[in-house]
Design goal:
CATH architecture of the domain at 74-118: 3-Layer(aba) Sandwich
CATH topology of the domain at 74-118: Oxidized Rhodanese, domain 1
Structural class: mainly alpha
Distance between the termini: 94 Å
Helix content: 40-55%
Strand order of the largest sheet: 2-1-3
Strand content: 5-15%
Length: 120
């Protein structure tokens, strides 16, 4: 007597769940890639020549030159941040003239002196 083989009907759910999982992982990868790309674009130019300098006619001072001027006392350092930031930390001996006050207090500075302003 030949046995009759019963065929089971396979449920489509495992395949559906696997496809949904793959779609979810692919969506997450695409989303993370788009976040990374937008962060890189928002970072702006890394080449200093491409950066926009707000006052191009004002000479920039290198860190080494500023340090040497500090060591030998040949420059006046002016911290243009607000009082809370100045009192938190500043270059010893630096004057505190917040940027908004500078037009009214500019006469406090010797125009013949080497004035180095900073804000960080």
């Amino acid at each position: 007597m030949a046995k009759k083989r019963r065929t089971r009907s396979r449920s489509p759910w495992p395949l559906v769940l696997m496809l949904l999982g793959i779609a979810l992982v692919a969506s997450a990868v695409i989303w993370l890639a788009s976040l990374n790309q937008s962060t890189q674009v928002a970072a702006g130019p890394t080449d200093p020549a491409e950066q926009i300098i707000p006052f191009p006619n004002i000479e920039r001072v290198s860190l080494q030159d500023a340090y040497q001027a500090y060591q030998d006392g040949s420059a006046v350092f002016v911290d243009v941040r607000g009082d809370p930031f100045y009192f938190q930390a500043h270059i010893p001996g630096a004057l505190n003239i917040p940027l908004n006050d500078l037009p009214d207090r500019i006469q406090e500075l010797d125009p013949s002196a080497w004035i180095i302003t900073y804000c960080t």
